[in-house]
Design goal:
mainly alpha; 2 strands; 5 helices; 2 domains
């Protein structure tokens, strides 16, 4: 089985979930393998889905994440990512660290405040 990593925020179709439950019932060793693994919440279901007959049905989720190449964790977003993130069709973003780049967090707060003014009709 090939292993995959991804966000722990996802949705599953009923058919995919039923397939996963069947696989887990037939292969209890899968649970044992992941029991004490690092970041299992970001690989347990992702590996099953990507090895399932439903892999072609997956759709992009609405999270802006920049994955580190060759690693299983996302990059911390900084101001260098701001333009791409804002220009994307994503509704959420991950991962921020105020100790790495507080400016991007402040910029996003400002953008939300400006958007509220426009939506509320105050501008």
């Amino acid at each position: 089985m090939r292993f995959y990593f991804g966000s722990c925020w996802f949705c599953l179709t009923r058919r995919t979930l039923e397939w996963i439950l069947d696989q887990l019932e037939m292969h209890p060793e899968y649970y044992r393998f992941f029991r004490n693994r690092n970041c299992s919440d970001e690989s347990f279901f992702q590996t099953l889905v990507m090895n399932s007959p439903y892999v072609a049905l997956r759709e992009d989720y609405l999270h802006y994440i920049v994955w580190n190449k060759g690693k299983n964790n996302p990059e911390i977003l900084t101001m260098k990512d701001y333009r791409d993130m804002i220009g994307s069709d994503k509704l959420m973003a991950r991962k921020f660290d105020e100790n790495t780049d507080k400016r991007i967090i402040e910029q996003l707060i400002q953008k939300v405040r400006e958007s509220r003014k426009t939506v509320d009709g105050k501008e």
